[in-house]
Amino acid sequence: MASIKGSRRRGIALHAVLVIGLLLSAFPFYWAVIMSTHTSTEIFSYPPKLLPGTHFLENVRHLLDNIDFFGSMFNSLLVATSVTFLVLFFDSLAAFVFAKFRFPGRRLLFALMMAIFMVPAQLAAIPQFVIMAKLGWIGSMTALIVPAAANAFGIFWMRQYMRSAIHDELLDASRLDGASFMRQYWHVALPVVRPGLAFLGIFTFMGQWNDYAWPLIALTNPDNVTLQVALSQLNGTHGTTDYGMVMTGALLALVPLLIVFAIGARQIIGDLAKGAVRG
Amino acid sequence: MAVIEQTPPAVAQPTPTRPKTGFRTYWHLYAAISPFYLLFLSFGLIPVGFSLYLSFHRWDGLGSMEWAGLSQYQYLISDSDFWQSIGNTIVIWALATFPMIFLAMVTAVMLNSAVRFKNVYRFAYFLPNVTSIVAVAIVFGSIFSTNFGLMNALLQAVGLDQVAWLNTPWGIKVAIATLMTWQWTGYNAIIFLAGLQTIPSDLYEAARIDGAGPVQTFFRVTLPLLRPTLLFVLVVSTVTGLQSFAEPQVLLQTTANESTFSGGPDHAGRTMVLYFFQQTFDNNDFGYGAAVAWGIFLVVVIFSIINWRLVQRRGEE
Amino acid sequence: MRLSRRGLLRAGLAGTAATALGGLATGCAVPTGSTGRNMVLWYWSGGLSDTVVENAKARYDSSVTLKAQQIGGYYRSKLITTMAGRAHIPDIAGLKGEDMASYLPNADQFVDLRTLGADRLKSQYLSWKWDQAIADDGSMIGFPIDCGPLAHYYQPAVFEKAGLAYEPDDVSREMGTWEAFFAAGERLRKRIPGTCLLVDVLAVYENSVNQGTQRYVDKDDHFIGDQEHIRTAWDRAVEAKRRGLISDIVNGTPDFNAATERGLLPSQLGASWAAGDLKLGLPKTAGKWRVAAMPGGPANNGGSFLSVTKACREPERAFEIITWMLNPANQAQGFVDAGLFPSTPASYEMKKLREPDPFFGGQITMDVFGPAAEQIPVAYNSPYDVALGQPIKDEMKNVGVLGKNPDKAWSDAMSKCRRIADHLGVTY
């Protein structure tokens, strides 16, 4: 009896601590909600407000007056979705080759790819900027989409996935049926690696949505930026920073991301953990 | 994401291709992997080569390039600002990483023993990691604001003095580290949890029969078996930590006439990457910026070697 | 999560095709500037009068669509990066006065305004202002917008409460020197705890430097930032810090705005255009301000230019627009709207400039700015001033904010300047 009671008490204590952690994780989101529903004057008063206010719509209106919120959100969506699809296609195709075929130079090419993985992005940033200036891509979304269209991480990830998920007998059988390389990729490989693709897709989408450093430099046309860049412009353009408005923008920018995350949460949390442990 | 490749791909696999040779046989395979290599060539290899070339020149991005020999590197070595930025980066990384790993591990152990609501917790703990850093930095900026921030309101409520968080060197570092800890604790807790779940339960059973308490069990059983996961977490947080940029940039963005990459008072929040951006795009010193980028590369390489050494030594044990 | 393979392929191919085509299309004809009948104008918040911009849009509507864009963030860096990026370069670009020297070496990025007939307008503008936009090869890259005579903005109600002079004439007289100003600050702090005379040490340091006729680098590319004129400004700022006149608030933050609104920073030293910032950023303080003469004498800070970039397809039209926007009548309007002090002396006598300003409690601020503008000391601005002034300002901030030992800070600043000078090819 006593031990059951003891373990229950321990269970309650455990959950109490876990709930505190959960509240700490969630608190900044709540804080953003509070700030986005108050005017700046209310925000800059003491003691700080702890409950939501009533000025959300007013802040939204200010936000829409100050930046092209929907335009930049459209740009973010455009970049994130096109990059995601390009990455899924190119990476899985390359991964299929590395996972299931032998050809001269395979090991060298693979090692080269892993080496690229280690090069910090800013090493290439200046020349990339110069090259894109020559191509006339600076200021347009092309500057963001093209260089991100295939990446070493995705190929590595999909290759690991395909090595175990695609059985060689299946490939052999389809080859005996006379299937071409693309048919094998399309009809044999892809159907069995959907969960791996889903993870890569969500991961890529979120990464692109949140990308900031390169867009900040490459998107020189102030009328045509992504959401993250627009938000940072909003924060501290001049001494008149309207915190309620900035916070409203920050909050609204999270919405599409939270939707994608909610859809793929199980997948991404599970796969990420599995991948890490396997690595 | 850095994933350590441990098994070389050479481990013999049944090879489904017929033993033919020549490019003609394999052209479709090369074609299939070509997009990555083409992109890499145009936006990776050529730029990296060009940036090496650039680092031996003086160039403002507009006029003509001037040969500068090794002078950019000579300046880099004696550039106290660059050394300071390395120090800032490492201090912020350490302030963020060690508490984060500790908290993440504690959380994971608790999650592992809690049976109910596990998925709810996992979802909520992961949430900070999916949010955009710009939005989060804006929120944290207001939490750490001197006169109207929540942090100082809390301090005042318990009778302590206000702290000018974003106006003192250590306050800046603490604020940035707090932001990073918040963002990565849950993520790493979930990775630790997955590691914990690979530990066979009969090991715990055996430890219990031997009369080991929970603390002993943790240090004798859990921690040694969790070591590979711990190393993974360390590697990932080193790679991301050394490249921190958006957190200090947005958090410390001041107004109007100042560089947006300055990193606050005494440049206490100016990380290596921030310094690179400042030299390159604020001062339009593309040549020196390239040299700084190579300096950063060197630091990353050194840290990677340290990490690799750690992995090796663990392997030998 | 379900992914249809056909959908994936279609989207992937469409995306690839689109980007490839986009790349080709733009690769053939690189658009460096604006397109269509657009004429893009870049400036910053408060850099031009809204009324004048709107009038210019309407006036030239038949020939061009004037697209005026306010650029946030660090303006100079954005403009130069855009020029280096060779795309979306504005046709007309505002250039801030303090950045002018760093644009001059890149004069070839701008249209030489003399080739468009600028010289015939020269007599209408302040000559020192005009000369600031002339590059070494004689080409003229910027057309004067405003100049920035410094003044002392203050809240009379707070001054009165502290027992200080509070009428503009009295303040000008009784706080005319730095020493008298500091003494008043000590009294202010004693009478009303929590108030500070100065927001940061730079308010003293930078304005003192501006009051001189020399800056950091002379015409022969020789570093002079270690000399008497800089050292005096430095010591003065250190003294203000020692006497407890400096707040711990960061200029331009919400904390700063809130403190100003609450009267905790009742005195601010700024150029004429700072009036525009006050009106824009602190509309609730309307009527609570007055303007007096700058302690320590007149000086200029900022004041900007409009330039025509090489990307502009219709330089003549652009020149016509900027000269119209910056004619004496419109400059007078700029003063009314945004505190942009005219660089055209003909404006000074206009009725618009002699009207009581309700934001300043009905004061005729021209009475303060006018005399100040006439006595502005002219200093040589070197393209290296920014790079070599920065370490000194940084160390100044360390003294102000972190309480660093001033002697240590000064020697740190000097050794850093020496290294940078060496790197830039400036003699020491």
From TrEMBL, chain A:
Q: Does Cell membrane count among this protein's keywords?
A: yes
Q: ABC transmembrane type-1 domain: from which residue to which, for each copy? A: 73-264
Q: What is its main location?
A: membrane
Which GO terms of the cellular component aspect does the record hold? plasma membrane
Q: Which PROSITE patterns match?
A: ABC_TM1
| Origin superkingdom | Bacteria
| Membrane disposition | Multi-pass membrane protein
Concerning Gene3D superfamilies, the annotation shows:
MetI-like
GO biological process assignments: transmembrane transport
Tell me where it resides. Answer: Cell membrane
Transmembrane ranges?
A: 12-33, 73-96, 108-131, 137-157, 185-206, 243-265
Q: Which UniProt keywords apply?
A: Cell membrane, Membrane, Transmembrane, Transmembrane helix, Transport
What family does the database annotate?
Belongs to the binding-protein-dependent transport system permease family.
Q: What is this protein called?
A: Carbohydrate ABC transporter permease
* The organism of origin for this protein: Streptomyces cupreus
UniProtKB/TrEMBL annotation, chain B:
Give the membrane topology, semicolon-separated if more than one: Multi-pass membrane protein
Q: Where is the ABC transmembrane type-1 domain?
A: 86-307
Supply the alphabetized keyword list: Cell membrane, Membrane, Transmembrane, Transmembrane helix, Transport
* A Pfam family assignment: BPD_transp_1
CDD domains per record: TM_PBP2 (cd06261)
Gene3D superfamilies membership: MetI-like
Q: Where are the transmembrane segments?
A: 27-56, 90-111, 123-150, 170-194, 286-308
Compartment(s): Cell membrane
Q: Which GO terms describe its cellular component?
A: plasma membrane
Q: Which GO terms describe its biological process?
A: transmembrane transport
Q: Which family does it belong to?
A: Belongs to the binding-protein-dependent transport system permease family.
Q: What is this protein called?
A: Sugar ABC transporter permease
Automatic annotation (TrEMBL), chain C:
* Keywords recorded for this protein, A-Z: Signal
Do the record's keywords include Methyltransferase?
no
* Record Pfam families: SBP_bac_8
Span of the signal peptide: 1-22
Q: What InterPro entries does UniProt report for this protein, alphabetically?
A: Bact_solute-bd_prot1, SBP, TAT_signal
Q: Mark the transmembrane ranges.
A: none
The protein, known as: Extracellular solute-binding protein
> Which species is the source of this protein?
Streptomyces cupreus
Lineage, uppermost ranks: Bacteria, Bacillati, Actinomycetota, Actinomycetes, Kitasatosporales
